[in-house]
User: Fold this.
Amino acid sequence: MERKDKISLKRGFKSRHVTMIALGSSIGTGLFLASGQMISQSGPGGALLSYMLMGTLIYFLMHGLGEIATYRPVTGSIMTFTKEYVDSALGFSVGWIYYYNCISSIAMDVITAGIFMGFWFPNIPIYVFTTLFFAVILAVNLLSSKSFGELEFWIVSIKVITIIIFLIVGIMIILGLTGHEPLGFKNFFYDGGPFIGNVNSLFSVLILAALSFSGIELIGITAGEVKNPSKSMPKAINTILLRILIFYIGTIFIIGAIVPYTSPYLLSSEMNLAITPFALVFQYTHIPAVDSIMNFIILTAIISACNTEFYASTRILYSLGKEKFAPKKFTLANKRGMPYISILITMFTLIISFIVATVGYEAYLILINGIGVSTLIIWLCLGLSHYRFRRGYKKQGLDLNKLKFKAKLFPIGPIIVIFGTTSMLIYNLFSGILTNPTTTLYLFVPLILFVVLFSYHKINHKTKLIPLDQIKFLK
Assistant:
């Protein structure tokens, strides 16, 4: 079973697998649940503006990632790129922060999935369902990457079809084609709309929008297991951006037009998980048991996100071992090319995280509040990596026309990513200190961890910023 010589993962993903895996990791509770909270905080106009601004940042982030991942397709790309194009210490620290992000996200999603199951089975303890979810995720991830990709393709298809139906039904409701009086766009201007609140409200919603896109960078992690990455990656990058932006902006537009921003049910995550913005819209169609149907679909979305996050965490742990940032045993793979040691270690880590999160409320807050900050750190490092990649490529006189995928509007793209992520991190810090210092401490656990990891590797290995003319490119 073990391959003790040259360990490598097999290229089993097809282009359609890559697109669906990235969709699965980025379309989850952020769209189905947080969209209502965003509209209630800043109005439909504020929520739309936030998604447009964040969509611009994501566009440039993904184009930069696509350029490097197509040129250098490797598993664990986020860590490898920062190590090779910026500084080894940065690669070490961002690799472990990405792992932290995945573990925190999975633990929170599994807890949320358990709560959703309580809608049907209120008398059964949550840990029964979480144990079942963990077992299913472990079994799926021990299959081949091709089998994993095929399964994820069909699971994510449920989410995609639901959103498409939602958009169509929403337009019909707005136009009055469902037996009701046409709603038009009066709710956009209801009670002082479409924009409410102030700059703080907009920034807060912008950060929620960033969280909604969390996981989209996973497409770079899959590069090392994609068949013909020079063709598959550009195709996946271009199509996924269009789909996600349509899904997110279209969804916010429909909800904002149909549900007044003053509706208490837009904050349903704290009131009744079954009453989501999606369910509120579908109620206009008088579909029987709409709450149960939406509950099932959202549960599917959460499990799909958990599945892809688990995949990402095992691949980054594998890559940490391959880059000698972790024990070499983490790279052991079975005959199907699955890094089973990393998979088992990740499952063990997840179980501990889940137990700690459910037993200690403080630990729960640290995990859930740190996801957003760790995501911004990862995106910041990706933006920096792309900027230095292209600068180094040009500095060494290499032909840009030989790049099989070129990011748009360089250097504006990576500068927007670096400036945007840094601004949100700074805003999070200072706004938190002024409003709730205790919560801010929880929020910045990943940032503190990142600084400690970076300093540890920097001091121990005496690494330096790699000069542009010394960056090693493929020959």
